[in-house]
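Issue: ligand-bound run for NAP - logging full I/O for the record.

Environment: standard queue, default settings, no custom constraints.

Inputs:
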Amino acid sequence: MSITTVNASQTATYKLGHRQVKRLGYGAMQLAGPGVFGPPKDRAAALAVLREAVASGVDHIDTSDFYGPHITNQIIREALHPYPANLAIVTKVSARRGADGSWIPAMSPEELTQAVHDNLSNLGLDVLDTVNLRSMFDVHGPAEGSLEEPLTVLAGLQQKGLIRHIGLSNVTSKQVAQGRSICDIVCVQNQYNLAHREDDALIDELAGLGIPYVPFFPLGGFTPLQSSALSDVAQQLGATPMQVALAWLLQRSPNILLIPGTSSVTHLRENLAAGQLKLTPEALAQLDTIAK
Ligand SMILES: NC(=O)c1ccc[n+]([C@@H]2O[C@H](COP(=O)([O-])OP(=O)(O)OC[C@H]3O[C@@H](n4cnc5c(N)ncnc54)[C@H](OP(=O)(O)O)[C@@H]3O)[C@@H](O)[C@H]2O)c1
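Outputs:
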């Protein structure tokens, strides 16, 4: 038996800002061209993925104006605007793209303010639901450093009514604590998956605080996870390895919200169906060996 029925509405919910969102959402980064730069090779297919996601019950979409740049947000707008009232669109700021597609830190007050306005206009919104400040002290992973200045800028834009909620991305526990002393932090988005578990303690800490943890690269990112333990468990359960990877995250902690990325309607359906998969203690023990 394979798990193919799709419906994000069958999955549980968790608080994200003022909303309860389904634990299975969608990450839009894969909708831009190769290297998240330039237009997709098939724009109609990108529109179809977004429309299928929402039709299947997805109410949480992750994006950024630096995907493309601008292009992913423009595709989201074309596919879904006017947006359903229950849809949480979460974006992120603090990087810009070089002419060669490179990722360049853009954390100055002027750059952050411009990024918020670019997100508003490209998404066609008057207010952004949630904006994650993506720390760029080290583009590849969390690195200590004060986020006071950029967060104060975002908090000012929140007071002006341009942002409803603020979150953090690519951050340490210390930065979360600093952030919470400046403004309400409604979510944390860091890299985490079956093979990359540096944030185990942070996830538990955030669960205690009732703050959602949103793993990016839940399937391993540009090169999806490959492991014999993952394939074995998938085969035993009649599921795909990607479904097992997502089910493991759902079972890891109730505050985990998923935003797997795909440019394919088939993969989207497969990923959403992972909400129905229950992993046995034996399967969890086998999967636990992957990160060791
Ligand atoms: N805060 C940050 O710094 C940060 C960084 C990276 C990403 N993000 C966010 O996190 C989201 C998720 O990350 P991600 O999209 O980079 O990585 P991901 O979800 O771990 O994996 C995406 C990759 O897996 C493939 N894939 C998806 N579903 C599949 C399936 N069922 N079977 C086989 N392959 C499958 C995709 O290819 P196909 O297109 O062919 O399906 C793509 O290559 C992004 O969309 C973005 O919104 C945030």
